[in-house]
Amino acid sequence: MPSGWFRIATSAELSRREVSVFRINGREVVAFRDARGVAAVVDPHCPHMGAHLGHGGRVVDGALRCPFHGLRFDARGTCVGSEYPGNPEVKLSIRAWPVIEQLGCIFVYAASDDSTPSWELPRYETTGWTEPVTKVLLLKGHVQDVAENSVDYGHFAAVHGYSDLEDPTLRIEGPHLYSRFGFTRRNPFLPFTDLQSTFDTAVHGLGLSVTDLRVPKLGIHYRVLLTATQLDQDTMTFGIGVSSEIPPPFVPKAIRGVPFPWRAATRAQIQLVHGFIVSDVLQDKEIWEHRIPLEVPALIPGDGPIAKFRRWARQFYEPG
Known about the structure:
This protein is 15% helix and 36% strand. By secondary structure, the chain is α+β, with helices and mostly antiparallel strands.
């Protein structure tokens, strides 16, 4: 299983006072929000007598209460109280997973040896952007296949119908990979016309890709968020999120200061566009679900820097 930062849930999936169970890398975790509303993720079983904290557990005073004997664990996994007479100090703890919440998602750091994070996700500025409209799907496949698509230039024409690939570039900085290219594609709104677009993509490990999608002709600037989380050897969840600048760049500057519910109007527009982007991305779905991993693929000119990507991806796996 790969290591790195992976989405276990969207922010909307974990409300205050709610306790939820999620899966990642073949393991269960339990998530809740503390008294400040900050997301916390811990191992699922109480170290006292093995009860599952996600089944019957609840949030009390910002801590996760075990349903069996009432022990309470805070966001750091420390037992901070009980319901025994006199509330005696209980020196027990459970593992708390590293958590980052941003871009409308809750990410945890997962590693096969439970080590602490060796790198962090960058923080993205969200001021002036809509909340992402996100759809999460359950698919067969592997998270590396999703990340690899960002550098698989050959598939853009064969699968998505893109043409005229322009100025592809690739840059690697440790666990982060950056790619940029332009292309021409059919206009989804006016199918008999074409659009020129640019993709500026930042891939952070194998769990998060953030793309600045620009369509200059239409004055469009979207942020496309692709999140992939391995549930077990064969299954992953795949999230597709889209947000937009507020107001969109195509709104003339002369009227941007006019009192108007720009956020609501922009979000309504994004909900429409989101459907087109989901359809575009899911053209890969059947391929992901049925392809087999080839350790040494028979690469041909035009495939893009796939070999370079795979050398980069090795850092997210245990040696051997």
